Amino acid sequence: MCGIVAAVSAGGDVAGDVLAGLRTLEYRGYDSAGIAVLADGGIEVRRKMGKIAVLERELAARALPPSPLALAHTRWATHGAPADRNAHPHTDDAGAVVVVHNGIIENYRELRGLLQAQGHAFRSETDTEVLAHLIGHLLREDGDLHRAVRRALDRVHGAYALVAAAAGRPDLLVAARRDSPLVIGLAEGACYAASDMPALLHRTRDFLVLENGETAVLTPNGAVLYDGAGRPVERPPVRCDWTPEQAEKGGYPHFMLKEIEEQPDVLARTAFDRLRDDEGDVEFEPGFDLDDQALAGFRRLRFMAMGTSFHAALLGKLMLEELAALPGDTLNASEFLYSPRLPEEDALTVVISQSGETADSLRAMREVQARGGRVLGVCNVRGATLEREADHVILTHCGPEVGVASTKAFFGQVTALYLLALRVGRARGVIDRDRGRELLADLRRLRPRLDALFGPATAAPLAAAAELLAPAAGCLFLGRCLNHPIALEGALKLKEISYIHAEGYPAGEMKHGPIALISPEFPVVAIATPGRTHDKMLSNIEEVKARAGRVIAVGLADDRRLAELADVVLPVPEVPELLSPLVNVIPLQRLAYETARRLGREIDQPRNLAKSVTVE
Ligand code: M6R
User: What is the 353 CA–ligand 1 centroid distance (Å)?
Assistant: First the structure.
């Protein structure tokens, strides 16, 4: 996690601005906070373990000199325990460079060894200090901060959003981003960087969103962006309005489309800061508060939720069984109240909710607790009732989801449940360190593969599939095993925003009744990606075709057998089977969106629905 705010202005003192922004980012981490300014040719740093309020008390006691440049950080510890010495900002040992960073530098040990061999002395256990030393080292070679940052990042493996400044240059910040969010705020005579837009709305509504691999040079006159090869990038700023909803629409016609396209970032935000790649394990924030002994003590896990979150719950159970060899069960949260009272002492109930305010889910949580059980809440909104009342918490960090049809929140939930299953598997000794490393590497490799889901090759099949679905009175969504919940989710997405009746089924069930519906006017959407169910899915598609049904398939572009059978193939990249739900859900979300758009529906506010259902 971690939050970053930085500012450079033509004059005056920007520390107050930067701290105001930092306060809005405290949800990202709160074990320590710090701020640095440039003054008298040097760098002045204040940093304290604890919340921002502790830093503010320190600043009241030891005021910083006024400065037109400041960088601030609120931390969630990854490398090195929460402590003053590990708090950001970090400087190099010459005091020439200062850095704030969000993410993980995976090869920091190796880099630290190389720097130590050249005489560098380190004062913290953080990966970020290594980055500060490396940038400082390279800055000494040619004196250009932007070049030094880019050269340093060429040697770095990992995820980062970072901002750096150099002593004696109070007119210059350099920012960079890979897999962790960073936006640039543009204002008259000042330029800002922050982890999200709300952190800067008190100063500007004009933003440049830094893309993966880009760097930026910020001066009081504005920002210049550079791509990974160092070429300047021209991009018009995004104008934000005042309401939070509008502030996050960013030029997209609908929130739903924007939120669908944010999903590659959601993967990084939900997962990457939590991965302990070396140990092949996962570490959640302190609110999780379940150690190996506690996790290994549960005899079963129960997953409960409503709507889209319930489909994530179904996947939670399947992933738990795959990765932790522990029985899971799922129950629609609205049904739990009427279930027989079973012993709860050896069970953990996972309640999943984007909003954390869904009445049925909260009621189920309280009923579990009243029966003596413990609840782990998986929630997207900090401060929501689920987060406050659950015994244990995992936040999904998807960012605010405004579209009523849930998309990125589902993606974040499934990602978090994959991490949970892995964590439980490690705690139970079912997954060893090597297997854990492989599973984490699979997740990291997924990030670039998600880009293919939005590439030009997807446009024509998507349009053809939406044309096929739009006139239909109804349709079936079929999937098996890990992709059965995705079939259910695809059907829910289509029905709630296009108003076309859609049902999701385990594909094996089709012959037991739903096959009676198949006709040229009643299409089937079939998920047929590689894995243990692939052959059976192709057989199901053959059965549909034998009855003159039309088939939209989700599958690999080079799957020749599938291409021969299906009317349209929505192409997806090949990924490990366990991660296929995260990939396969995206074309189904886009299909629902494109179909609803053709039908002229109110996509972000479908009829009769509300974002948060607060009555039972
Ligand atoms: O906030 P929650 O995740 O608890 O919401 C649960 C459902 O109300 C929600 O997923 C709903 O089904 C969405 N409209 C689905 O797109």
Answer: 7
Instruction: Give me ligand 1 centre to Cα 195, in Å.
Output: 26
The 10s digit of each residue's pLDDT in 133-156 is: 999 999 999 899 999 999 999 999
Domains of the chain, each with CATH number or no CATH: 3-247 (3.60.20.10), 255-451 (3.40.50.10490), 455-598 (3.40.50.10490)
Residue 418 pLDDT > 90, yes or no?
A: yes
Supply the residue whose CA is at minimum distance from atom 7 of ligand 1. Answer: 307
pLDDT at 292 over 50: yes
Q: Is residue 375 lining ligand 1, measured as CB closer than 6 Å?
A: no
What residue type is assigned to position 316 of the chain?
Answer: G
- Cβ-contact 454, 501 below 8 angstroms: no
Ligand 1 atom closest to 358 (CA)? 4
Cβ–Cβ < 8 Å for 137, 115 = yes
pLDDT at 244 over 50: no
Tokens 């009272």 found at: 341
Please tell me if the CB atom of residue 308 comes closer than 6 angstroms to any atom of ligand 1.
yes
pLDDT at 80: 84
* Distance in Å, CA 308 to ligand 1 centroid: 5
- Whether ligand 1 lies within 6 angstroms of the CB of 407 is answered as no
- Entry field: residues in the chain: 616
Which residue, judged by its Cα, is nearest atom 12 of ligand 1?
307
Element (H, E) at 276: strand 275-276
Whether 172 shows a pLDDT value over 90: the answer reads yes
Is the distance from the beta carbon of residue 595 to the nearest atom of ligand 1 less than 6 Å? no
Ligand 1 close to Cβ of residue 358 (< 6 A): yes
How is residue 578 written in tokens? 């366990």
Atom of ligand 1 nearest to the CA of 407: 16
Q: What local confidence, expressed as pLDDT, does residue 512 receive?
A: 96
Distance 309 CA to ligand 1 centre (A): 6
pLDDT of residue 609: 78
Is 307 close to ligand 1, i.e. is its CB under 6 Å away?
yes
Predicted local distance difference test score (pLDDT) of residue 197:
75
Residue 243 pLDDT level (bands cut at 50, 70, 90): very low
Q: Give the model confidence (pLDDT) of 298-338 as tens digits.
A: 999 999 999 999 999 999 999 999 999 999 999 999 999 99
CA gap 325, 37 in Å, rounded? 52
Peptide bond into 89 cis (omega under 30): yes
Which residues are catalytic, by number? 2, 611
Coil, strand, or helix at residue 274?
Answer: helix
Strand partners, 226: 215, 232
The secondary structure element, H or E, covering residue 32 is strand 32-39
Please, what is the average pLDDT of the chain? 92
Q: Of 358, 389, 408, which is best to mutate to test ligand 1, by the most ligand atoms within 8 angstroms of its C-beta?
A: 358
Helices (H), 227-382: 244-247, 255-261, 263-271, 292-297, 307-324, 333-336, 359-370
Bigger pLDDT: 342 or 364? 364
For residue 530, which of 585, 486, 575 has the smallest C-alpha distance? 575
pTM: 0.67
Q: Name the closest-CA residue to atom 14, ligand 1.
A: 405
Looking at residues 502-526, what average pLDDT do you find?
96
